[in-house]
Amino acid sequence: MSTTVTLNIYSGMPNPTWELTTDQEIEFNNKFSQMKFAPLDKSPVGVGLLGYRGFEVQSIENNDISLKASIFGSIINIGDVDDQNMIDSEREIELFLLEIAKDKLDKDLFDYVKDSIKENLSDAAEKRASGFQVMDAPPFDPGYWNNDPCIKKTDNCYNYAVNKATYTFAQPGRGSGQKGPDVPVCTCTGAAAERDGVVKATSTTIVPSDGHLVALVIWPGKDFHWYRKDKSNNWSHKPGSTDAINTDNDRKLISNPETCARGNYTVFCGYYICIPDKTTIS
């Protein structure tokens, strides 16, 4: 197998490129296998930044591409398939790829990339400490939910909050085999979601070390609805079979699901933590 690494950094000049040794390939694959699944997160590698934009790794075996990945911003974007992405919140692989290139880059370039990675890590830690939701919270990416007619029609607010498309109009508790009540009630509907793997939050300002915050509201005697906290620190939601949006009934950005305009969903039930790969819905 031949594994090529490209440092994505230049605009006009060709980017630095090198091959991994056999031992480096083994170490890279070991680190790669430990990364967590992050189905809907996307790397910002393609947003037109100038300067450091991460690494591209391509492994070829028997003339076939066996791995093509872009690695930047804590996200490992695998090929062109978004639902196979991985998350590397400590940017361990970026730092590893940089370190093995130390003798291939001039000192100024090496130091610049290393400082860029560490600066972003430090910035993320500060944002976490201040209550800003980062890293594990999904971005507001409505295209995934809105552009595919099947996903839009068959996935609801619960699917969106958990960040999983199941094409089943998911219901709290059904994933665990213990569906919630037909008439939604805060305690019972929330407990049903907990059986699926969602965890009750102990504080309304909590910043999960893994996963993201969701919030449950009720239209008394009629319906439930879920909101999701995004990487931007605002909230978004998907009302039934309609578009995923980040505004409330007054067409205002949702900074707080407790106080936003919610129509008939007058009962606020509380906050929960969702870790998608530990939550089963159907």
List keywords for this structure.
5-stranded antiparallel sheet, 282 residues, 7-stranded antiparallel sheet, alpha+beta, single chain, 7 helices
What does this structure look like?
By secondary structure, the chain is an alpha+beta fold. The protein contains seven helices and twelve strands. The protein has helices spanning 22-33, 92-100, 107-129, 142-146, 149-154, 157-162, 186-196, and strands spanning 2-7, 17-19, 36-37, 55-61, 64-72, 75-78, 86-87, 199-200, 212-219, 223-229, 235-236, 267-274. The strands form two sheets. Strands 2-1-4-5-6-7-3 form a seven-stranded antiparallel beta sheet, with helices on one face. A five-stranded antiparallel beta sheet has the order 8-12-9-10-11. β9 and β10 (223-229) form a beta hairpin. α1 (22-33) packs antiparallel against α2 (92-100). The protein is elongated, with a radius of gyration of 21 Å. The two termini are 40 Å apart.
What would you say about this model in short?
The protein has helices at residues 22-33, 92-100, 107-129, 142-146, 149-154, 157-162, 186-196; strands at residues 2-7, 17-19, 36-37, 55-61, 64-72, 75-78, 86-87, 199-200, 212-219, 223-229, 235-236, 267-274.
- Helices and strands, in order, run as EEHEEEEEHHHHHHEEEEE
* Percent in strands: 15-25%
Distance between the termini: 40 Å
Outline the biggest β-sheet. Answer: 7 strands, antiparallel
Q: Indicate the structural class.
A: alpha+beta
Tell me the strand order in the biggest sheet.
2-1-4-5-6-7-3
> What's the overall average pLDDT, rounded?
84
What is the radius of gyration computed over CA atoms, rounded to a whole number of angstroms?
21 Å
The helix fraction, in percent, is: 25-40%
Number of strands: 12
Tally of helical runs: 7
Catalogue the unreliable spans.
127-135
Shape: elongated
